[in-house]
Each structure stands twice: as structure tokens, then as C-alpha cells.
Task: inverse folding
């Protein structure tokens, strides 16, 4: 289990995180989303023990992560800006990783070479961005970790490689009961692989729950009326989003199904249709409801 307790982070005078409390159960797959600059990468670096928070602590299995080699060797962190030795090949980096990770698995390494067709002896500095990402994934997953932290893991991968990565992670989760946190701007990708989603905004984790729970809390409807309706008529419902004018509206609401249906009944619409709501829409409207982007 991963636990963040009152974690804060400041760079110079810039406060990135403010007293973050967050718990990630063992074996869960969390998608971490939030606006640019909200602290997603910083949070992953703190969990991995790469950096020490300026306040609070990060724990794995009740042990502090920072400066704890025994815990850190069970954590794989695939950074958005991966480091490799100058003029090194994948085989060179494999030897480098083996010197730090005694449980480095030749079996996993060989299987990943079949998933990601990278030439072992080619210089990594000649690789494209997508190939560098594949090389980092091969090495990071080959250490046989218990926790995998992926920062924009799908960035730079073509559709086939993205599918291969998702399949391989799914297999590892089943076989080894991995705990995975994936930071991404692509919510469609997260919807395919994650069973939990957390939203970071205003320096804190403001939402953290299962995807199924979110789907029961958020609702999208199309409403039709036989007379012209002023949008202010919906104010008592506290909608996250309203689109339309006149007689036809699309409305996004948050709450239990019973509460939402009772509220809609008070409007006495002529037509009421519930529409599917995907994860990307959900978080766009949630962020709009928090004021994000309104000044743009």
C-alpha cells in the first residue's frame, strides 16, 4: 500500500503540492490526471523516492520511501524525461540496471524485447522519442517491481505499441498483483487500463475513487421542453455544464441517480434522455466546475 501523509513540495518559492493526503491500495491501477503544472510528475517522483518532499512523508508498506534502498528497488518509475548513459545501447543500460537491481529478470526483459522491437546494440541517442520510451519501459519493467509509476507512458508510442503496453501491464497486474499509477493527459487511454482515477488540482488530490463510482455520480441528459426555457431555471440543480438554449438542452449533473431524477422531475420536461458520459467529458466538466480555463 502507498500512503502520502501531509505531503508538500516547494521549489524555490513555488509551492507545487500542499499537504496532500492520498492512499493507493495494493493491486490497484490508478490514473492520475490534472491540469498542466498541477504537480502530477512531482507526486510520482516523491512516491518513487527520487525527491524528498519539503513537508510530510511518502510510505510504502508503512516504510518511508526516501533514502530507503530496500523499498526503492521494488518501485519502477518511468519518467517523462528518461535518463540514459551517454552513447549507451539498450544492452549497456541493461548492465547498468542489473548493478542496482539484483532481481532484474532476464525472462521479463526477453519477453519485452518481443513486445517492443528495439535493437539491443543500437545507440539510444539515435532513437526516436517513441523508441526511447520503449527502451525505458523494457528496462523499468524488467526489474520485476511491485509498484510501477508511469509518467505520460503512452506519449510517443504508436497505436500498436500503446495496445501492446496496455496488454503487458494487464498481464503483469494479473500475474504479480502490481500496483500501478499512470499519469496522463489522455483520459481515453486511462479508461482502458485503470480501475481508479485521482484528480490533482490546486496543489491537492481533490478527487480519488473508482471509475465505476464516478460513473454512478455523474449524469448526462438531453432535455426537451414545449416552451422556451431560460437556463437559469436549472440553477437549483447546480449543474456542472449546460449546453443549448430555447427548448433543447444538454446538462451534466453530479449526485446520486435518485437525487438527479427527483430534480429533473421538478423541471417537467417534455423529453428526457440519458446520454453516455465518458471519462474525458467527466473530468473536463469537473475542471470547468472548479473554474479551470474560464479566464482563457
Result:
Amino acid at each position: 500500500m502507498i500512503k502520502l501523509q501531509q505531503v508538500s513540495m516547494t521549489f524555490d518559492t513555488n509551492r507545487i503540492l500542499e499537504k496532500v493526503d492520498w492512499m493507493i491500495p495494493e493491486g490497484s491501477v490508478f490514473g492520475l490526471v490534472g491540469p498542466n503544472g498541477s504537480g502530477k510528475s512531482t507526486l510520482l517522483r516523491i512516491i518513487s523516492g527520487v525527491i524528498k518532499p519539503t513537508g510530510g512523508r511518502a510510505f510504502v508498506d508503512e516504510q518511508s520511501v526516501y533514502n530507503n534502498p530496500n523499498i526503492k528497488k521494488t518501485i519502477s518509475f518511468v519518467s517523462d524525461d528518461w535518463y540514459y548513459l551517454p552513447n549507451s545501447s539498450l544492452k549497456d543500460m541493461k548492465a547498468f540496471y542489473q548493478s542496482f537491481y539484483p532481481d532484474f529478470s532476464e525472462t521479463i526483459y526477453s519477453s519485452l524485447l518481443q513486445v517492443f522491437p528495439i535493437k539491443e546494440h543500437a545507440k539510444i541517442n539515435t532513437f526516436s522519442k517513441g523508441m526511447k520510451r520503449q527502451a525505458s519501459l523494457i528496462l523499468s519493467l524488467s526489474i520485476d517491481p511491485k509498484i510501477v509509476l508511469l509518467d505520460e507512458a503512452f506519449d510517443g508510442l504508436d497505436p500498436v505499441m500503446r495496445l501492446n503496453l496496455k496488454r503487458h501491464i494487464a498481464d503483469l497486474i494479473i500475474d504479480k498483483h502490481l500496483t500501478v499509477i499512470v499519469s496522463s493527459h489522455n483520459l481515453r487511454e486511462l479508461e482502458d487500463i485503470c480501475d481508479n482515477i485521482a484528480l490533482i488540482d490546486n496543489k491537492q488530490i481533490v478527487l480519488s475513487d473508482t471509475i465505476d463510482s464516478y460513473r454512478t455520480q455523474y449524469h448526462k441528459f438531453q432535455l426537451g421542453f414545449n416552451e422556451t426555457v431560460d437556463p437559469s431555471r436549472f440553477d437549483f440543480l447546480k449543474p456542472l455544464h449546460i449546453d443549448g438554449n430555447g427548448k433543447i438542452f444538454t446538462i451534466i449533473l453530479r449526485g446520486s441517480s435518485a437525487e438527479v431524477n427527483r430534480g429533473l422531475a421538478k423541471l417537467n420536461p417534455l423529453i428526457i434522455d440519458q446520454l453516455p458520459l465518458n471519462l474525458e467529458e467527466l473530468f473536463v466538466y469537473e475542471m470547468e466546475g472548479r473554474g479551470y480555463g474560464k479566464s482563457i
